[in-house]
Amino acid sequence: MAAQLDELDRKILGELQLDASQSLDEIARKVGSSKTPVWNRIRRMREQGVITRQTAILDAEALGLEACFFVLIRTSEHEADWQRKFLKTLRDRPEVLEAHRLAGDIDYILKVRVKNARAYDQFYQALISEVKIYNVTALLSMEEIKSTTVLPL
């Protein structure tokens, strides 16, 4: 169920999405409010689960993680034990930035960030040694055109 947010909540969230390191004074000034109501709204939105965490966004290439692969996975296994093991394997692999279960011909898609193709192969070999997978297709991203964490409000 979606949280009930008013225009001021949305402005505050917009500012936090752009730069969560801003002071309460800065946010309050930008959204046309004062510090205490802004703090109270942020606290409420945390309690409601609208704001789940604050983090720093790092530049993958600056850290030497130059290869981004989208990994399409088909499986013939759909039992609860297999799925539990597969999900644990994905959660334990830091290279996996995103994992989605899909409708259609492909069962899962992963976004994997690694140093290079050799590092991807090491990831792939580790993955298939952990869980039985019917088919894996890896697509190398040649260029990142858009990447954002900012949700439309």
Descriptive notes:
39% of the residues lie in helices and 18% in strands. It is of the alpha+beta class and 153 residues long. It has two domains: 7-47, Orthogonal Bundle (Arc Repressor Mutant, subunit A), CATH 1.10.10; 67-140, Alpha-Beta Plaits, CATH 3.30.70. This is Lrp/AsnC family transcriptional regulator. One of its GO terms (biological process) is regulation of DNA-templated transcription. GO terms for molecular function: sequence-specific DNA binding. It comes from Pseudotabrizicola alkalilacus.
Rg of Cα set: 20 Å
How do the strands line up in the largest sheet? 2-3-1-4
Second-tier CATH architecture of the largest domain: 2-Layer Sandwich
> What's the helical proportion of residues?
25-40%
Low-confidence stretches: none
Task: Give a quick summary of the entry.
With 153 residues, the protein is α+β, with helices and mostly antiparallel strands. Helix content is 39%, strand content 18%.
Give the SSE layout:
Blueprint: H1 7-18, H2 24-31, H3 35-47, E1 67-74, H4 80-92, E2 96-101, E3 108-114, H5 117-130, E4 135-140
Antiparallel strand pairs: 1-3, 1-4, 2-3
Pick out its properties.
153 residues, alpha+beta, Arc Repressor Mutant, subunit A, Alpha-Beta Plaits, 2 domains, 4-stranded antiparallel sheet, 5 helices, 18% strand, elongated
